[in-house]
Specification:
Blueprint (H helix, E strand, L loop, with lengths): L4 H13 L19 H10 L11 E7 L4 E8 L5 H4 L5 H31 L18 H7 L3 H11 L2 H5 L4 H4 L7 H5 L1 H16 L7 H8 L6 H4 L10 H8 L9 H22 L5 H4 L2 E8 L11 H9 L9 H7 L24 H10 L19 H14 L23 H5 L3 H14 L11 E3 L5 E3 L7
Parallel strand pairs: 2-3
Antiparallel strand pairs: 1-2, 4-5
Helix pairs in contact: 1-2, 1-14, 16-19, 17-21
InterPro entries: OTT_1508_deam-like
Pfam family, one: OTT_1508_deam
Length: about 475
């Protein structure tokens, strides 16, 4: 049993879109390649909490522990100031919020999958109370992801009477309180749907409104519902009493519908892919697994885990220290082989497999498979690697007094699921010791590893050096 390319690309788009301050368009992901469908899918699910802006969390690894459980490992930078963290998380609440959110999303996946299964078992085709595909609730899954903050969100809108508060709906899972159980997700679905319908209905009455044609163009048959898109606006099931009641807190200023619709349409696409993923028979073997969530503070991770993203980056970053690394100790610590993982493996046979991550593959490709490795600045993804690694390196700059220039990162989020297209059998048989040894040899022969007495200069991964004074590590 394996996952097709479309399944993986859809869930990748979903996970990446959940960093909602920068909504990604689907076209951004069409050129991604995947060499391990199962590991790609799981890493995408694990990366649901990624946020480059505050460096709050990113996925380190996903592992099948047994036939009944799966482990998600996250790392965070707890050295962020409260100003940098902003309104999303306070330091003391950060770890708990990350773990809670991952558990919550996973529970939602399981709930949706169970409801789809019950629906399929209903041989008579009757309308089951667990039915999740009803047209009347066409936006319920999108709402379900975010309704744990619905009550507080609606209170803010009514109190402030500002339309821009409505736009914050797409960030609600970061800013609002969650409800007590998964069942609470579905408790307010109809209420929120009515709330959304009233807002759009009110907008259609305004003289400066682009009109129903614009609504139909940008929404298709999605989150606003087919009833709203109908040219016969009277067919919308909205009571005049309800509209008049809700008008009292509506702002008279024009609602920035275009900006809001852009966000909602992008959100709709990705949440709909989550619905398709949860209801897919091939994916249910993963969804039913019991998640174990490990949260690593200050990037502390045991060296014995060979496929740890943190481990590989830490050792690579150590080359930039002013003190040379002790090769025997480094090789002794890395005396482990990356196990083989093939995309042809079934889910059952992959239960004990460590999944090699993106940046490890880049390092192996660059320094091991290339007989004459080019300078590090010519890595194929960005400088030094990708946005996810840059987030890690920025935090390392602060916590470990290591200075790498990541300001020219190309901004793409390759994440662990975007593996190299090279033959995985060749790559995964390489040991991390071989990788780091060849990196050290390459840099040493080029005179790029500095001795402590040479100067007060610091190595950059682009092959250049900078003075410590006045250097901005981030």
């Amino acid at each position: 049993m394996s996952l097709c390319h479309d399944d993986v690309s859809h869930i990748v788009a979903l996970a990446s879109s959940l960093n909602l301050r920068d909504i990604r368009k689907p076209s951004r992901f069409q050129n991604l390649s995947f060499s391990g469908a199962v590991s790609s899918l799981l890493d995408a699910l694990a990366s649901i909490c990624v946020s480059e802006e505050v460096g709050e969390a990113f996925a380190v690894a996903v592992q099948f522990l047994s036939q009944n459980s799966i482990r998600f490992t996250f790392a965070s930078d707890f050295n962020q100031t409260k100003e940098n963290i902003g309104r999303r998380f306070l330091d003391s609440e950060k770890e708990n919020n990350i773990i809670t959110h991952v558990q919550h999303v996973w529970s939602l996946l399981q709930t949706i999958s169970d409801r789809c299964r019950v629906q399929e078992l209903d041989e008579q085709g009757l309308q089951n109370e667990l039915h999740v595909f009803c047209e009347k609730e066409i936006g319920q899954l999108k709402t379900a992801i975010y309704t744990f903050g619905y009550q507080k969100f609606r209170h803010r809108v009514m109190k402030k009477a500002r339309w821009d508060e409505f736009c914050l709906f797409t960030e609600i899972y970061h800013t609002m309180e969650r409800q007590n159980s998964v069942s609470d997700f579905f408790a307010d679905l109809q209420q929120f749907h009515s709330f959304l319908t009233v807002l759009v209905h009110e907008h259609l009455k305004r003289e400066d409104s682009p009109g129903e044609g614009f609504l139909y163009l940008v929404t298709g048959a999605g989150i606003l519902g087919q009833r709203i898109l109908s040219r016969q606006s009277n067919s919308c099931e909205i009571s005049s009493t309800r509209v008049s009641e809700d008008r009292r807190w509506m702002n008279r200023d024009p609602f920035p519908l275009r900006d809001y619709i852009t966000k909602v349409v992008a959100l709709e696409l990705h949440i709909n892919t989550l619905l398709g993923f949860s209801s897919c028979l091939r994916n249910r073997e993963i969804i039913v697994l019991r998640p174990e969530i490990t949260h690593l503070s200050n990037f502390s991770y045991p060296v014995s885990e060979p496929s740890s993203w943190d481990n590989v980056l830490s050792l690579a970053l150590s080359l930039g220290r002013r003190r040379p690394v002790d090769p025997p100790k480094l090789l002794q610590a890395l005396n482990s082989t990356l196990p083989l993982s093939s995309s042809s493996q079934t889910i059952h046979s992959a239960f004990t497999t460590y999944h090699t991550l993106h940046c490890e593959m880049v390092l192996i490709n660059h320094f091991v498979l290339n007989p004459s490795p080019p300078p590090l600045r010519q890595l194929g993804v960005s400088k030094p690697t990708c946005s996810a690694c840059s987030s890690y390196i920025k935090a390392s700059n602060k916590s470990r007094n290591i200075y790498f220039d990541v300001t020219r990162c190309n901004g793409k989020w390759y994440f662990p699921w975007s593996l190299s297209t090279s033959d995985p059998k060749i790559l995964l048989h390489q040991t991390l010791a071989d990788v780091i040894e060849k990196i050290m040899t390459c840099l040493t022969t080029r005179g790029q590893v500095l001795q402590p007495s040479e100067s007060d200069e610091i190595f950059h991964p682009e092959g250049s050096v900078s003075r410590k004074e006045g250097l901005n590590p981030g």
